[in-house]
């Protein structure tokens, strides 16, 4: 990544191979260039990441309604001309981190009648297609609504909003009364505006109220109703949003995957012996003391974990052998492994105890979003239009099965091939109650001389399908 450039007007230029952004001294984004297409996504004379405060006094339901009149009370907070009115202080943006892995800028303001505080860091990571805004707010206001707004150089009559399983489209104009009534729309992980060959999206990790008006996208961040709870939303909050530019349509751009990666950390499972000791969440400095069990406390209200350790080298120990009066105990089929391990020195110094654990327990590793190649996943959909959304144990544990739930996300009829990184006994389509609905099992295929089973599926627009996959 290139070094951060500090401009004479107090703004900063940050860029990686995908994006190039100019950040104003007040934290607003003046320019955001998609380097592959060379196009600036921000409308001329406009900005992204404008923090705006609105009046919020509903006529009836204080904590539920947002009235349309509030759109006429807009005050932009992070601009120099508003100081002394709604902003007590605004600390101009500063460079926090400038490394080969990421660039971080930060700024702070005190605003509102109750002197709420907002701290924000703007982050651009190497090879990331998303400009990320990480905000912390100490919220103290009364009947105020805080939004973040971005104006894009995109000509469109619709905004697309992510939903639980797919997306919806809503107008970004007020040509009719029923269009005007759609000034507040629910959306999950992202909202996007798109032309035929270029588009822009705002990503959110925890906020769900959106407004699309012309070239502007607004995301509601915090409200301050006083009924029925007079302290609703008061206190400390932390949340993220991001800006993502793309060429082509949002379906072909990878936006749906980017939205998932922005919201859900990718998990990676690695064979035993591959994780260095230093990467463990829990480490015993003495190899004689083994951390054996980490589990949630039985009393979930405690918000606690239980840590169980034992001495393994030959100290005083107590154990017991259970007795079972079942005459058929252990009858039937069994599957097990054993191995041979040679070592020099003593078994204590050889690492035998650690090797024994690695032989018995698969190591888990957590990695930041975007770091896991598709080929390493246990479950892969060959078509990005079909998203594997849910993987869970079957409700009937006696089945030894998992439930796979997928949906079509682009809004068209699509075919995909789902690859499974494990052996299967049978594959059946089921409904949400996990009741079998197909007439016969789905045939698993083995392609390209691999041992990994696959099966194909056809999805209608936004269709949701569930499968029960029995293990061998």
Task: Write structural notes for this entry.
The chain is mostly beta strands. The protein contains three helices and 31 strands. β9 and β10 form a beta hairpin. It is globular, with a radius of gyration of 27 Å. About 6% of the residues have low confidence.
Key attributes of the depicted protein:
carbohydrate binding, 3 helices, 31 strands, Glyco_hydro_38_C, Immunoglobulin-like, six-stranded antiparallel sheet, alpha-mannosidase activity, Beta-galactosidase, Chain A, domain 5, mainly beta, 472 residues, Gal_mutarotase_sf_dom, Alpha-mannosidase, globular, 3 domains
Write the layout of secondary structure elements.
Elements (H helix, E strand, L loop, with lengths): L4 E2 L5 E4 L3 E5 L5 E6 L4 E2 L9 E6 L19 E2 L10 E12 L3 E10 L4 E10 L4 E10 L4 E8 L6 E6 L2 E6 L5 H4 L4 E2 L3 E5 L3 E7 L4 E5 L2 E7 L12 E13 L7 H9 L3 E4 L18 E8 L8 E7 L40 H9 L2 E4 L12 E3 L4 E8 L7 E8 L5 E7 L5 E5 L23 E6 L4 E7 L2
Antiparallel strand pairs: 1-2, 2-3, 3-4, 4-5, 6-7, 6-12, 8-9, 9-10, 10-11, 11-20, 12-19, 13-14, 13-16, 15-18, 16-17, 17-20, 18-19, 21-24, 22-23, 25-28, 26-27, 27-31, 28-30, 29-31
GO molecular function: alpha-mannosidase activity; carbohydrate binding
GO biological process, one term: mannose metabolic process
Pfam families: Glyco_hydro38C2, Glyco_hydro_38C
